[in-house]
C-alpha cells in the first residue's frame, strides 16, 4: 500500500473510533458535571481543602478560586524544581535554574507544556511524577471547569451562579481524566512504552563514547499528556521517542487521545443546554476545519518537488519512518489544532507551507477541536461573534441559545479574541527588533522568523510545541514565553467567565420566525467562515513574512 492511501485509511480509522465514543463519553461527562452526588474520595478532598462543593459561585468568585489554585500550583512546581537537587529520585540532576523553573512552572500550570529543556537530562522522577504529571491532570481539569461554567451561562437564566469551581475541578480530574488515562497507560505499556523508576543506564559504544538512557514512569505521563491536551514529553524527542510512542498503532492511539475529549465535549454541551443538535452544529464546525487542515497538510507534505522527495514518497526529513508522512501529518494537525503541543516529528523540517499549516492551526485559537475545555469555550465565543455578524446582516438583535447578544457580550467576546493575537505579534516583533534574541534562531531569513513567530504563537495559545531550531533556553525567551503563557491562559478566562455571568443573568428570549437557527448547516458555514476570515485578517502579514515567503520561494 502506498503512503497516501495509508494516510487516508489512518484518518478514516480515527474518525470511526471517535464516532464510536462520541455519544457515550459526551453524555457521561454531562452527567458528571450535572450530578449532585459526591463520591467518598471527593468528600475527603473537599474537607482537606476546606471547600463546600455545593456552594454556588458567581463569576468573580469562580475566577478568584481558579486564580488562587493556579497561583499555588505555580509556586509549588517552582519550588519542587528549585529543590530537586535535595530530593530523592533526582537521578543526580542539579536543581533547575530560576528562570527555567519559572518558565516550566508557568508552562505546565497553564496547560501549555512548553519545554526549553531536555527532559531526560534535567528532571528527576519526583519532579516528573509529583510535579509535571500532576499538573497534566489538574490544568486540563481547570480548562474543562471554565467550559462548564460557560455552558451553564447559556443553560441558566436570571441567576449569577455558574456552579462550583472546586467541584468541577475534582470531578473532571477523578471521574473523567484519571480513569481514561489509566486505561490508556496500560495499553501503551502493552504496546512497548516503558513504565518504571529505574536510573540511568549506560549502553553501547558509539563513536568512542557511550550512550545513556533514562527510565521513568513514561506510559502514565504519556497517557495524560495526550488526553489532557498537555504535550510535555518525558524525553526531548517527545512522542517521536520510541519509549513514549513505540509503534504506528500507539501513534494513532495518541492522536485519538488528543482529540477524544475536545470533540466529545460538544455532545456534553448539547446535552446540558437541552439541544443535542446545537452540539452537533459545533461538532460539524470543528470537524470541517480539522478535516480541511489534515487534507491540506497531507497535500503539502506529499507534494513531490525534486528527486529526493520523489524517491522518498514525500517530505520525510524530520519524520520517523515508523510513522511515515501520513501519520506524522495527522499528528501535527491534531496537536496544533488542539492545545497539546506534543510532536512525533520536527515541525521545522516540514515543507514551508506545511509549517505554515501548523502555525495557522494554533492561530485559529486552537478551537478545532481545541484543548480540553478551552476548545469548547473558545469556539462558543466565536459562535457568539458569528451570531452577531448574522444579526447585522438581517438587521435584528442577535440571539444564541435563547440569550440576547448585546453590547456587553460583544465587548467581552471581542476582548477574548484580541488578547492572543496581541501577545503573539507584540512579543514576536520585540524579539526580532532587539539585537540579541534573533541570535537564538538557527536559520536565517524567513525560516528563522518562522521559528520565533511559532514560539510565541505556541506560548500565547497555550500549545507548547516547538518549531525546533530555536534556542529558547535563554533569559529572554524563558521570561517572555512565560509571560505570554500566563497572559494567554488567564486573561481570556476572565472574559469567558464574565461572559458566562452576563448570559446566566438574562431572561430567555422566545424563538420567533426571525431567529437564526444555529443548529442548521447555514450557521455552521457562517461560523467556519468567520473563524477563517478573522484569523486570516489578523495574521496574514506575519505569515507572509515567514512560512508563505519560504513556501513560495
From TrEMBL:
Per the record, a Pfam family? KdpA
What sections of the protein cross the membrane? Answer: 12-30, 61-80, 137-155, 176-197, 252-273, 280-303, 374-394, 415-434, 480-501, 522-542
Q: Does the keyword Lipid biosynthesis apply?
A: no
What are the GO MF terms of this UniProt record? P-type potassium transmembrane transporter activity; potassium ion binding
* Keywords associated with the record: Cell membrane, Ion transport, Membrane, Potassium, Potassium transport, Transmembrane, Transmembrane helix, Transport
Q: How does it sit in the membrane?
A: Multi-pass membrane protein
Under InterPro entries, the record lists: KdpA (IPR004623)
Q: Which GO terms describe its cellular component?
A: plasma membrane
Concerning NCBIfam families, the annotation shows: kdpA
Assembly information from the UniProt record: The system is composed of three essential subunits: KdpA, KdpB and KdpC.
Report the sequence similarity comment from the record. Answer: Belongs to the KdpA family.
Biological function: Part of the high-affinity ATP-driven potassium transport (or Kdp) system, which catalyzes the hydrolysis of ATP coupled with the electrogenic transport of potassium into the cytoplasm. This subunit binds the extracellular potassium ions and delivers the ions to the membrane domain of KdpB through an intramembrane tunnel.
What protein is this chain from? Potassium-transporting ATPase potassium-binding subunit
Q: Which organism is it from?
A: Streptomyces misionensis
Q: Which gene encodes it?
A: kdpA
